[in-house]
Write a structure and sequence with these properties.
This protein has 225 residues and is an alpha/beta fold. It contains 9 helices and 8 strands. It has a domain of 106 residues: 3-Layer(aba) Sandwich (Rossmann fold). The structure holds BIS(adenosine)-5'-pentaphosphate (AP5).
């Protein structure tokens, strides 16, 4: 059996983490865990967590670590993560990264690699301005770079496409600031552990996808040696 693949996708908002995670989850049959999607589902359902998270998300700030850690720990304890997983948007602070390391270590698991999607801020702003997501499952599109076949309709489930509340320009500015202050230190964190792999996220989605697939094939080879 191939070794378990436990991947983290790291990068600024709008770098393409969700776009790539969706494709990779299908390629490799890995559990796809997006803390952003989980939080948005909680907001939609009006749960206690959703109510607590919404004000932070709408402001482009991070949701407090204790809320995120409880949610992520429960999800990582589910059976479908035993064959490997892709984390999108988690960890996002050093405290989250340390807690993740601890939880996986207790279960005899570890991170295989952290893939950093490198995209400059100017391109992030263009991407987020054009992003559209479907109301049903959050499938991602871009009005210019990755348009749906029919305007404002999801190719995958036929639901309506909308703009996310936190994609307003003034909120995006804060999300980028928060990324540089609180999440970018994880680049050194994973580099020091020899786990960081850099991906040029400015190339088209299919090219980024091909690059990551090749990288994963190499990681698997290295792990099986
Ligand atoms: P979250 O949903 O995780 O948002 P994010 O990290 O800001 O990332 P995005 O979803 O905006 O972007 P992405 O990198 O997935 O890019 P995408 O593939 O969509 O988090 C939302 C909020 O929840 C946070 O602000 C925070 O409040 C809270 N939160 C979540 N996790 C948390 C945590 N761990 N701790 C604390 N708080 C947390 O692509 C963007 C656009 O570009 C799309 O339109 C896409 O079609 C297009 N695109 C993608 N790739 C390419 C490409 N290669 N070329 C051209 N266009 C592309």
């Amino acid at each position: 059996m191939p070794p378990q693949l436990n991947l983290i996708l790291l990068g600024p908002p709008g770098a393409g983490k969700g776009t790539q995670a969706e494709r990779l989850g299908e390629d490799f049959r890995l559990a796809f865990i997006s803390t952003g999607e989980m939080l948005r589902a909680n907001v939609k359902q009006g749960t206690q967590l959703g109510v607590a998270a919404k004000e932070h998300m709408d402001a482009g700030a991070l949701v407090p670590d204790d809320l995120i850690l409880a949610m992520a720990a429960a999800r990582l304890g589910e059976d479908d993560t035993r064959d490997g997983f892709i984390l999108d948007g988690f960890p996002r602070t050093t405290a989250q990264a340390l807690a993740l390391e601890r939880q996986l270590g207790q279960g005899g698991r570890r991170i295989t690699a952290t893939l950093l999607l490198d995209v400059p801020d100017e391109e992030i702003i263009r991407r987020i301005a054009g992003r559209r997501v479907c109301v049903k499952a959050g499938h991602n599109y871009h009005v210019d770079y990755d348009p749906p076949k029919r305007p404002d309709v999801c190719d995958q489930d036929g639901s309506r496409l909308i703009q996310r509340d936190d994609d307003r320009p003034e909120v995006v500015e804060n999300r980028l600031r928060v990324y540089h202050d609180q999440t970018a230190p994880l680049i050194d964190f994973y580099e020091e552990r020899g786990l960081l792999r850099r991906v040029d996220g400015t190339r088209p989605p299919a090219a980024v996808h091909d690059h990551i697939r090749a990288m994963i094939a190499t990681l698997r080879l290295e792990d099986s040696l």
